[in-house]
Amino acid sequence: MSETEERPTNCQYCGYGCALLARVKDGRVTGVRPDPSRYPYGSAVMASCKRWPMNVEALDAPDRVNVPLRRVGARGSGQWERVSWDEALDDIAARLRSLSAEHGPGVLASAIGGPHASYWPLHRFMNLFGSPNNMGIGQICWNPRIWMDLVTFGWTVELDVVRGLTSCVVVWGTNPAQSDNSAFWQHLQTFAQEGGDLVVIDPRRTEVAELASVWLAPRPGTDTMLALALLHVIIEEGLEDRTFVDAWCHGFDELVEVVAPWTAEAAAEACDVDADDVRKAARLIAAGPTAFVSGRGIDQVGAAVGHIHRAICCLRAVTGNVDRPGACVLAEAPDFASELAMEMSDEAAPSCRDLSLNRGRTPLQCPEGYDALREITEKLGRTAPRRYLTSAHPDLVLHAMETGEPYPIRALIVQATNPLVTYGGSARVRRALEGLDLLVVLEYRLTPTAAIADYVLPIAGAIERPMLQVHGGVANAAYGGPAAVEPYYERKRDYDVFRELGLRLGQTDAWPQATLEEAFAAELAPAGVSWEQFCETGLYWPPPAFNKHERIGDDGRPAGFATTTGKIELASEFLPRFGGFRTPQPVLGGHMGESRSAAGAAGNPSGASEAAADAFPFTLVTGARRQPYNASMYFENPRFRAACSAPRATVSPKLAARLGLAPGAPVEVSTRCGSAKYLLDVADMRDDVVSVDYGWWHPEWPCGDGRRGGADESSANAMTVCAIEEPLVGSWSYNALPCAISPTADQLSWTSVEGDAPDSVKQ
Ligand SMILES: Nc1nc2c(c(=O)[nH]1)N[C@H]1C(S)=C(S)[C@@H](COP(=O)(O)OP(=O)(O)OC[C@H]3O[C@@H](n4cnc5c(=O)[nH]c(N)nc54)[C@H](O)[C@@H]3O)O[C@H]1N2
Ligand SMILES: Nc1nc2c(c(=O)[nH]1)N[C@H]1C(S)=C(S)[C@@H](COP(=O)(O)OP(=O)(O)OC[C@H]3O[C@@H](n4cnc5c(=O)[nH]c(N)nc54)[C@H](O)[C@@H]3O)O[C@H]1N2
Ligand code: SF4
Ligand SMILES: [Mo]
């Protein structure tokens, strides 16, 4: 028996990775508490976060998968046999080898999820296997913003909100109160309380909108027109930063032409907002320093995504808010190993390039787009991660699974994602995955996706594994810490699974480090920091400098920006090479691929045909974030379920009255793709919008009982598709979809009492 000791480790229930101290006795954790001595720690964050206490119970949770499982019955029947790791990995490797021999290495696809784990081990494995077919969640989450920042500024930017310096923060299509219950949300509240101006752009009156100086609630999908109008007002009133524009911006006159028709009044009509509010917001933005933060409200509107991000880049630039203290900072290249080096993309088999399904379909998000970008950003010494920026489009991967075109994809490895719930077109995803020869899922529990696997491999989670979060290596910042214990039962870390599979498939030189700690140590080594030193503070972050474009280089000239012209490209010289526009265009978002220009939509703001407008008179927003859940996670927690027991469709009180429905009524929401059932809730928001939760399933229902975990009942993604809508990156729409809502007589599985009023959780 050993003495109880406290060991440093991290919570990993959201991207923050807060520092914890775990009480450990005989290799088992008996409790955790926040660790104020290491990064990241915030007393207010820990006080308001409901998740971190789950860390202890999760280690021994009855529904955790603890041993490798192999399917024995029909797919999805819930019949498994326990196998040893060697048996599982030998068989998987043998089957991958023979599938690759028959069809080529593209036969294997993989899928990854949100930032739950390090993904370079999977990327490395796929590179050396020779397959480009990893489906990330990037196209629908952060890729469009990163791409547009990269091509406009030569690198990515992060906001910099400083008390007493920043005068305005624009919060565009993001609700940090629910999605980011962290230091940033606390910071934003203080900023507003101290008199800072918030401009909030969201069709729902969120908690952050309540703090705003100006709340603009545009029709979902019309944000590009709003952005063009903000630019119009700034330019018309001569509020641009002339000196900065003259010195550092390329194509100002072209931008002036594009925004000319987009007066505040034109935007008021197209977006259904108040013209005076547009002018007021424009003046606040121009006053500066102004920081911008955006989220899935504008990332998940299909065709318009590139344009809206380009327009925001232009707003930052013409107001001089680029790499400026109190506004935003252009990140520095990491001192530690680049993501590119970790994922070993330069060592990839040639097939990785040749087999790209994205080529010709999503011309930026493909090998050629990446190579052109790399050539430019490397001029100023920064290299972007390749696999994230070339990840395969799910529509194309699913198509290859379904049809064998352009070549067959017959196997899939899934790490840290639950595509049967979170991908657009969930029924299609299920059918495609059910038809595979080999489906391997690395998981904590039997999710709807794991339930149909051939192998479920038990994965070690927080506390049982170290963490090194570098956000794709786009900044010189890393945080994390050690594991407090070895993995419980027979669980392994994701890294070990890819390493051991890789070694079985001849990737002998690629995996020199036997443990994840050694691999992290190798990653940090170029920065001159050992893993142990790093773990003492949990942070590697040399504060970045600002105004780096003014730095004088060896040639006696200022560094400028890593773009084709060396300036910020209001008019892009890069995008037209890939079929894109030089300037942001007034494109309407959403509407399931039925994208069209705003001009065509002016008389018909929903952008849909008359008949469709009759059938689907409202606009759907899916997946607005809510604590305490996260995507399809944490529904197994009984306390969470007691407090927040059913998925909701939320409308304004006026719309509820118009529909003749009371809060708590079971409703069916539908789009032209499908429908899902919810309980009705009301909140302050636009009267033409319906907002539905996403991610819901019943982890407590036995796997294989025919009900598929209940994920089909309230599946937001029964109502969406993952088509290529944005033409350069391939983003699709989870927001701004034409929809209908009506009462349903069905009893929902979420409530035992019919018509139970949903619990009141704030937006
Ligand atoms: N609790 C919780 N936190 C999470 C997650 C989770 O699932 N649950 N997921 C994590 C992930 S993967 C991500 S990507 C982030 C996302 O984080 P956020 O981007 O902050 O996501 P939301 O909180 O849904 O905020 C998006 C807002 O956009 C608004 N919106 C919808 N359509 C439009 C539109 O057309 N225009 C505009 N201007 N706004 C619109 C919605 O009303 C909503 O308030 O959250 C992360 N954090
Ligand atoms: N309709 C609609 N659909 C959406 C969205 C929306 O707003 N609306 N949002 C989209 C966005 S932005 C995102 S990012 C995606 C999120 O989609 P996903 O990433 O698919 O969703 P999660 O529920 O986060 O899935 C994580 C799964 O991985 C497991 N897991 C967690 N950590 C680890 C780990 O370290 N290793 C392994 N092997 N497994 C782990 C969890 O148990 C869980 O089952 O959803 C997208 N889908
Ligand atoms: S879930 Fe809570 S404690 Fe855990 S990392 Fe996120 S904010 Fe920190
Ligand atoms: Mo995301």
Note the topology:
Layout: E1 5-10, E2 19-25, E3 28-34, H1 43-48, H2 54-59, E4 69-71, E5 80-82, H3 85-103, E6 108-112, H4 120-129, E7 134-135, H5 143-153, E8 157-159, E9 168-172, H6 176-179, H7 183-193, E10 197-201, H8 207-210, E11 214-216, H9 223-236, H10 242-248, E12 249-250, H11 252-259, H12 264-271, H13 275-287, E13 290-294, H14 296-299, H15 305-318, E14 328-330, H16 339-343, H17 351-354, H18 367-377, H19 386-390, H20 394-403, E15 411-415, H21 419-422, H22 426-434, E16 438-443, E17 455-458, E18 467-469, E19 478-481, H23 494-504, H24 516-524, H25 531-537, E20 539-540, E21 568-569, H26 598-601, H27 610-615, E22 618-622, H28 638-643, E23 648-651, H29 653-659, E24 666-670, E25 675-682, E26 689-692, E27 735-743
Parallel strand pairs: 6-7, 6-15, 9-10, 9-13, 10-11, 12-21, 15-16, 16-17, 22-26, 23-25
Antiparallel strand pairs: 1-2, 2-3, 4-5, 4-17, 8-14, 18-19, 19-20, 22-27, 23-26, 24-25, 24-27
Helix pairs in contact: 3-23, 4-23, 5-15, 9-12, 9-13, 9-15, 12-13, 20-22
The structure holds ligand MGD (2 copies), iron/sulfur cluster and molybdenum atom.
The site of one ligand MGD has 33 residues, from helix 6, helix 14 and strand 27.
